[in-house]
Each structure stands twice: as C-alpha cells, then as structure tokens.
Amino acid sequence: MGFRFYAHICSFTSSSLAEDGLVANGDFETRPSNGFPSDSISVGPTEIPSWRTKGTVELVSAGEKVSGGMLLIVPRGTHAVRLGNDAEISKEVPVEKGSTYAITFSAARTCAQLESLNVSVPPASQTVDLQTLYNVQGWDPYSISFEADEDKARLVFRNPGMEDDPECGPIIDDIAIKKLVTPDTPKDNAVVNGDFEFGPWMFQNVSLGVLLPTNLDEETSPLPGWMIESNRAVRYIDSNHYAVPEGKRAIELVSGKEGIISQMVETTPNKLYSLTFSLGHARDKCKEPLAVMAFAGDQAQNFHYTPDSNSTFQVASVNFTAKADRTRIAFYSVYYNTRTDDMSSLCGPVVDDVHVWFSGSDGTEVRILLGLGLAFWAYLLVLV
C-alpha cells in the first residue's frame, strides 16, 4: 500500500536540477504582469507566474474576506493561492531520476466543511486531510515525498472537493522541494535515521514544524527509514523552535493513538535486543501528562515522561527477543495533548535518538557458557 510517485517524462540537463528550498514562485509573491487582484490596476484574469492553472484558481491576499465576513488565512507573506472546486495548479520541476524528494507546503482551510488537498506527480497521488486543525493559527506546513522515475516531475495541487459554497476551497502557500538522502545504518544500531536528522525541508522562520501525514512506504517516506501508519499526522520539529533531546531534529507525537511512526529493522531470530530512545517535552507549553507507547516485536511498554528541572528528556528502553529477520518498532502518544496557553493546539511527547542494540547472548548460549564454566571449575577442583 506504499505511496510512490512516478515523475512525468521529459528531458533536461543535469545542471538544471531543482535546488533545495522554494520552487519558482512557491510563495506566490511574484507579481503577475497585470498586477495582483488587490491592485487597482489589475484587469482581466490573474495569471500566476511560473504555474499553470485549471479551473477557479485565485490569488488571495492577507486580510481579504469572503462572504459572511470570514477572514482568509494566508500562511506566510502577503499572498497565497485558493483552489476552487476541482481546480488545480501545476508546474514541472527538474529532478534526478531514481532519487527521492520531499515536497513541503503550507495549507489552510477556507470554510468549516470537509476540505482536503490532493498532491500528485501523475499517475500517483496522495490526498491530505485538512479538516484537523493542529494549531490555532489555522494553517500548517505538511510534507509528502515521491521517487523520480524520470528526470522531470509534474507537481500538481488539486482541490478534489465539490463544495456548495464557491468561495470555499483550500489555500496553499510556501511550496518547497528537498532531495532526500537515506543515511546508512550505523554499525552499532539497526535503526535507519534513528536521530531523525534526515527529513523534509523546514523553513527556518516557521515555528510550527512540519506535519507528516499517513505514509505506508518507508522507501519513499519524507522521513527516510520511517513510516507514518495511522490516519493522523506526526510533527517533525527542529531545535530552533523546540526542545530536542539530541541533534537538530526530532518527532513530536501530536495525534494520540492516531499518530503512529514505525520502522522495520533488521534482526537475527532468537537473539536478544534492546530498543532505547529519548522521551521528552518540546517546551511548547504542552499540557502534561506526556506518555509514549513503545513497541518492539511482540513487546509493548508504556513510558511516562517525568519532568526534571535539569533536563527536558529521559532515556527509556524495551528488551525483546527477535522472532524474524525483520522486527517492527513503533511509537504513539498515549494521550491526546493540547497546549496550556490556548487549549486547542495539538502537541505531545517528543521521541528522538532511537536505537536497537544487540543485547548479547540468548538463553541457549547463556546456558552453554554457564555449563562450560561449571565444567572448568570442576576440572580445577579435580586437579587440586
């Protein structure tokens, strides 16, 4: 069931590869030739530089209102794009064939109805549910990923909804791309990207992290090595805006039991292993208690974060015996937590620095060694 994008066929020179960061006019701040709709000189239909449009696509401005007096939310800057019923914007992005990329974008709802956004590189696609508001600002950054099957990707954002109100429809902004690199598995750790340092593009001046929606294919995950199994997102956070146990990146489990991250790690059957990880508080005013349910093979254990004035995290561990050559490890938040300052923004415990260690000999080997030891001491007694 893994989600995998395949890029549109087209040729290009290697020197024109897309650079990490905003795609051309990804923030929609480039002025159209006939001006922005809010400009007094604007006449005729508004073009969106560097993008192709289909259906009712509007450039909206911060502070603009729709019927009923609802204020449109522009995630960042002054302008963004609103997609009407079955409307879309698209552009071609030069990529490296065979590489995996993450697309980061900001999205907001216009109305209270169910709204979603379909993001695709045809023929494959993924629909992101915008109904859940993860913070009181009314918008969130998201990230999805794709594998380039050719050397140009046709990136499409489409509103699949058919709302009764023509002024409804998702608003999108800040579209960026990043080529993903999957790190090698460490010699002393079976977990790939256990420190979460490899992931999608994050805007340095955005304090909301990046939401990672459902993704069932670890090979094309925006978080290399990891899958998001459930129907709610987890938040990818950075040390510029949150407390991170180690390094610059970590995961905040913001959706309770509906936000699960997992990985299949390589193991040797009948060997004893230990899953260790850092459990912490992001210092984002998240209401306690905070707790994580950790899974390792057939073992599951609940860990509560214990506040410590000297540290924002603690180390937890689960011992397990591998039953196969691949073992599933997974985490979710035991509780549904919100911030204490607004009681609405979703938050949760932080997980970082995940390791699966070989814990030593299994029971059979221990018994053999114990038997040899006893035989050795018996032999010495005979000699004496």
Can you describe what's shown?
- Pfam families: DUF642 (PF04862).
- This is Prefoldin subunit.
- Keywords: Cell wall, Glycoprotein, Secreted, Signal.
- With 384 residues, this protein is mainly beta.
- 5% of the residues lie in helices and 37% in strands.
- Strands 1, 3, 4, 6, 9 and 11 form a six-stranded antiparallel beta sheet that branches. A six-stranded antiparallel beta sheet has the order 12-14-15-24-17-20, with no helix packed on it. Strands 2-5-10-7-8 form a five-stranded antiparallel beta sheet, with no helix packed on it.
- Strand 7 and strand 8 form a beta hairpin.
- The N terminus and C terminus are likely disordered.
Instruction: Give the CATH H-level superfamily of the largest domain.
Output: Galactose-binding domain-like
How many structural domains are formed by the residues?
2
Give the N-terminus to C-terminus distance in angstroms. Answer: 68 Å
Strand percentage = 35-45%
GO cellular component, one term: plasma membrane
Keywords: Cell wall, Glycoprotein, Secreted, Signal
InterPro entries: DGR2-like_dom, Galactose-bd-like_sf, Pectin_Meth_Modulator
Domain DUF642: 21-178, 191-356
